[in-house]
Amino acid sequence: MGTIDGLPPLREVIRAHELVAKKQLGQNFLLDLNLTAKIARSAGDLTGCDVLEVGPGPGGLTRGLLAEGARRVVAVEKDARALPALAEIAAAYPGRLAVLHGDALELDLAAHLVSPFKIVANLPYNVGTELLIRWLSPPAWPPLWSSLTLMFQKEVAERIVAKPRTEHYGRLALLAQWRCDARIVMTLPPEAFTPAPKVHSAVVQLTALPQPRFPCDFGVLQRITAMAFNQRRKMLRSSLKALGPDIDAKLEAVGIPPTARAEEIGLEQFCALARAIA
What is the pTM of this model? Predict the structure, then answer.
């Protein structure tokens, strides 16, 4: 697809602004505007909605979000080389695109958005998981955002939606599914990107629940799951022994065999254990 909005095709934009992707910034550009529009549509109805985008690069997804009717897009870009290309998009959509130059890990992004807002991003590979965990762990729940539509390496996406007793099940699945409905909505091959990464990618949609699926203290749940999955091959009586000498009794009290391993235990049981320990 050449264009969706009268602006030049992305390959021309990259040539004009000398936007060679930088590996140290985790950049892999998605140049097909059909695909970026499809990702934007997968986030649901964007009309009347603010959207946060992290790592827009030359602006392919940005253009998709605006063309699909987002009220306003706030795009956070660390790479100064991309700012002129994003300024051209802002000029084509007056008043609808705000570009913040900086590191998404360091900026107060909520201050620039009207809540509830959606987050839609082809996340840089090197910061994607860290950003996701931050968005899943705000001081209060429900969060300021209503949904996350995020592209990750396919293996990370599979970790987010994994179920117990499967290869990718772990702490990320528990933290995501405790507070959200999570599903993979699209997969993309390496050749969809420039430069082509060595792995497939996938888009995950996480919709915030009004309240966590099961009651428990977030800090305790984080601590327990970190200890359990950092030594996932050990029995829970061993991996959790630092929680106290009575860990066997607490496990048994919530119906978890002390000889079980972390990958065998579902979210509801982990939450029950967190309540027992708290």
Answer: 0.93
